[in-house]
Amino acid sequence: MAVANTWYMHQAASNPDVGIIGCEPYINGVATLLGKIRKAGVTNLAVHPGDARDMMDVLPEGSIERAFLLYPDPWPKKRHHRRRFVTPEHLDPLAKCLKSGAIFRVATDIPDYVRQTMEQMMNRDDFEWLAEGPEDWRKPWSDWISTRYEQKALREGRTPHYMTFRKL
Length: 168
Ligand SMILES: C[S@@+](CC[C@H](N)C(=O)[O-])C[C@H]1O[C@@H](n2cnc3c(N)ncnc32)[C@H](O)[C@@H]1O
Prior knowledge:
168 residues, alpha/beta, Rossmann fold, four-stranded mixed β-sheet, two-stranded parallel ribbon, 7 helices, 21% strand, binds S-adenosylmethionine
């Protein structure tokens, strides 16, 4: 979710048999991505130019095999934490459209976002956290390609964290 154009194009090219939906309300980002999709002739990548929540509301139950939340807006002020994606308001509809065994990946450079993600996800009985040791959240996934925001975070000295959950 959210435009990271190179990331999307890489995902589409690496998984030609998989249908991918990107969600991004920032219209300039969508316009750039649509141009790249057309130029490259990519046919397995669709873009919803709006809130990811709207998409989850209309997707059939159990229809999604993977979901990616990559460097979501941090909403740093405490009173805004409830606007973060990792709240039941978003996680409940996400859980509904993920099929059993589906993978939900979260990447963030914000320690308090890690805290809230873990707090929320560990409180749920419909996901399990797939981590066996520190390497699992310190190292990116083996098929990972960095996003624009991750590059910015690294340049500015922040540490990425990678969390993987399985839908039960
Ligand atoms: C910090 S940026 C990260 C962008 C990209 N994922 C990356 O790693 O480079 C957060 C992005 O989330 C998008 N966004 C915010 N709220 C959203 C929502 N409800 N649904 C989909 N995208 C959203 C923003 O427009 C912005 O592009």
